[in-house]
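Reviewers asked in the last cycle whether our approach scales beyond single polypeptides. To address this, we selected a multi-component target totalling 367 residues and predicted its structure end to end. The input consisted of the following lines:
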Amino acid sequence: MKDFEALKNIWHDQVALPKVSHEDVLKKVRKTKQGLAAKLLREMLGMVAATIGLIYVWINNPFKLWTTHLAMIIFIACCLYYIFVLIRDYRKISDNTLLLNKPEEYINYLKKYKHDRYIFNTRKYRIYSLFFSLGFVLYFIEVSFLASLWVTILGITFTVAWLLFSYFILMRNYIRKEEAKLEDMIENLERLHKQFENTDQEE
Amino acid sequence: MNKEVLFKEIFQANSKKIYHLCYGYTGDDESANDLMQETFMKVWQNLDKFRNQALISTWIYRIAVNTCLSYLRVEKRQAKDELTDTIIETKSEEVSEKNEQIDQLYKCISHLEENERIIITMVLDEVPYPEIAEISGISDGNLRVKIHRIKQKLTELYNQHERF
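The resulting structure, written as structure tokens, was:
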């Protein structure tokens, strides 16, 4: 039988040492910073290229109907919104000051952050795809005047089928998975939150 | 003082205790090293805010605790405990009696609740009670009661395991 003092002696006898040095930490800091910036830059460049492409198509094609102009505005707005979200998320990730909060507050922040991400990944994404669909519908109005009937029907059928498939199959599966993940995380965080709560009952 | 020199000093003075905290929390050496590295990366990024702080260790511990808490949110507790048992059992075959006792102690700590693991590793590393209260955000009165209970729980767990 050992008492707590004996356990303390065992603890102080341990020779287990961290395998990480301060140089390793600094190396990782530099690597992570470059990695994050590079990934962000790649995504940003992709979206900027898409936006420029859309503007180019808009300028170089004398669209006749106002519906097509509206469609182009919707597409470009969607791309700009995505770029805005990328920048906002990057700034959020870079903010480390929250780690200095008390654990109870930090757990609350994690809960809120996870919930917000869930809202973005589901509801806002839904609105995003809705606007994209609207853009396509508006675009096809002009196409129907220019192309043959069969090409128009084929184009509309393919676009509608793809949008329905994305919305009802891909999105639903994705939302279900995200929801399960969020519930699991929230449950975990609630448990941790209770552990750090200051209750007078314990005194 | 040069930022890198200051960081080196801070690292040398605190890394061992932070490693113990992370090891106690995760129950395995590899994750403990990862979490410790992550903690000190955050310390480096916040170093300018720490300058002229009297109790820098309190802030480092706070970052370590929050890093541990956010780490576990994606871990499956059951899976982790099983894995920990396997790792410790496999390793124990070859280590000396002293190391076996330490492994056993870490194994018992991994069976405590998350906040209990955090608090007890700080108690074992002789962090003063007011500092533990400040780090964990738990009031002084509550903390003393908690510590008393955790000590009892850990001692019971250890003695139970030692009998087998």
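Chain B has one domain: 3-163. We regard this as preliminary and will revisit it once experimental data from Aim 1 are available.
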